[in-house]
């Protein structure tokens, strides 16, 4: 009887342990699925890219009955774009929103939409990125451990400095911050400027202390990073419409079932419409903000002269038949 009782107790303990382990594993699995981390460098919690990923999270939460959510860590909380991309590739970070320029040295096809004066207008850019050319570029990073989910608008990038920049003659010799990309160094050099690559988080102090004379970015970044406090002339060169990209780690992606992958892709695509509307509103709001703060929007810029200066950049970077094919496909898109 004692033996039987002992066996029963042991069996009960084993069952209890099994149930505990099952519960623990299930809970751990649910916790992993429930909250994917997504990085973003922008300071404002309501910045269009930050808000768009939060919107995507709402869609996922609703459509997966709470199985999937995304928590956005902005303000460079998880590191610079380069650092978070390194985390993404090995699966240490689930998702990441970066400017496409950050991918230029990793994924060759990402060079194409980064090229200066490539798009005729915002409408042209959106049509290209929503079509087959955009899909091909998004797929270009899969071999590097990253799945491209969507393109977000990043507006038109222009130069802001302590003086008006109306032509390449005005940019000659300027110490200008650029993204940490060989292409961006070449673009600034073609303008006659002295390129100074650095992370976005360091630009404000660099402008304030005179380490750099200028930077280049869109109006919402000029406002959101408070760069307008340091330099007051925003010259509308509109030299690039390089988009933002939303990525998910391939390590994470490969663990999702096909239905869940489709869920993520659909939610990401829907967040694009949300982001673009938010972007257009933010751009208008921030333009008004910087003007009221004393900034001067310089519109009489000789864009043709800047564009002509970019020929060597295209020769150097669009150097393969594949990249040349993609550039032509962009130009042929009506």
Produce the secondary structure layout:
Layout: H1 2-34, E1 35-39, H2 48-63, E2 69-73, H3 81-89, E3 95-99, H4 122-130, H5 132-138, E4 146-152, E5 157-161, H6 168-171, E6 175-178, H7 182-190, E7 194-197, H8 203-209, E8 214-217, H9 219-224, E9 233-240, E10 244-249, H10 250-253, H11 258-292, E11 296-298, H12 303-308, H13 311-317, H14 321-332
Parallel strand pairs: 1-2, 1-3, 6-7, 6-8, 9-11
Antiparallel strand pairs: 3-10, 4-10, 5-8, 5-9
Descriptive overview:
With 334 residues, the protein is α/β, with parallel strands linked by helices. 49% of the residues lie in helices and 17% in strands. The protein has 2 domains: 34-154 and 242-286, Bacterial extracellular solute-binding protein, family 7 (D-Maltodextrin-Binding Protein, domain 2); 157-241 and 287-317, D-Maltodextrin-Binding Protein, domain 2, CATH 3.40.190. The chain has helices spanning 2-34, 48-63, 81-89, 122-130, 132-138, 168-171, 182-190, 203-209, 219-224, 250-253, 258-292, 303-308, 311-317, 321-332; strands at 35-39, 69-73, 95-99, 146-152, 157-161, 175-178, 194-197, 214-217, 233-240, 244-249, 296-298. The protein has a 6-stranded mixed beta sheet, with helices on both faces. Helix 2 (48-63) links the parallel strand 1 (35-39) and strand 2 (69-73). Helix 2 (48-63) runs antiparallel to helix 11 (258-292). The longest helix is centred in the C-terminal third of the chain and has 35 residues, at 258-292. The relative contact order is 0.16.
């Amino acid at each position: 009887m004692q033996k039987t009782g002992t066996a029963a107790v042991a069996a009960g303990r084993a069952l209890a342990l099994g149930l505990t382990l099952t519960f623990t594993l299930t809970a751990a699995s649910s916790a992993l699925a429930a909250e994917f981390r997504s990085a973003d460098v922008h300071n404002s919690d309501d910045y269009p890219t930050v808000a768009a990923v939060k919107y995507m999270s709402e869609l996922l939460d609703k459509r997966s009955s709470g199985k999937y959510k995304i928590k956005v860590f902005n303000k460079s909380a998880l590191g610079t774009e380069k650092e978070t991309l390194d985390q993404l590739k090995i699966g240490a970070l689930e998702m990441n929103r970066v400017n496409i320029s950050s991918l230029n040295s990793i994924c060759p096809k990402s060079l194409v939409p980064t090229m200066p004066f490539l798009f005729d207008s915002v409408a042209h850019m959106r049509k290209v990125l929503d079509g087959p050319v955009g899909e091909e570029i998004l797929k270009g990073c899969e071999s590097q451990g990253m799945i491209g989910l969507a393109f977000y608008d990043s507006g038109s990038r222009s130069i802001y400095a302590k003086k008006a920049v109306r032509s390449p003659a005005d940019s000659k010799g300027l110490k200008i911050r650029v993204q940490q990309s060989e292409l961006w160094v070449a673009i600034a050099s073609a303008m006659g400027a002295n390129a100074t690559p650095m992370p976005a988080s360091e630009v404000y102090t660099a402008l304030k202390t005179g380490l750099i004379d200028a930077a280049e970015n869109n109006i919402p970044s000029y406002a959101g990073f408070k760069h307008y406090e340091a330099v007051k002339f925003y010259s509308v060169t509109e030299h690039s419409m390089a988009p933002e990209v939303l990525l998910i780690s391939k390590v994470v992606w490969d663990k999702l079932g096909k239905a869940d992958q489709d869920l993520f892709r659909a939610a990401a695509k829907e967040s694009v419409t949300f982001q673009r509307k938010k972007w257009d509103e933010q751009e208008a709001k921030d333009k008004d903000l910087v003007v009221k703060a004393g900034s001067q929007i310089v519109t009489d810029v000789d864009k043709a002269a800047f564009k002509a200066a970019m020929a060597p950049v295209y020769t150097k970077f669009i150097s393969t038949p594949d990249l040349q094919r993609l550039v032509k496909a962009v130009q042929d898109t009506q």
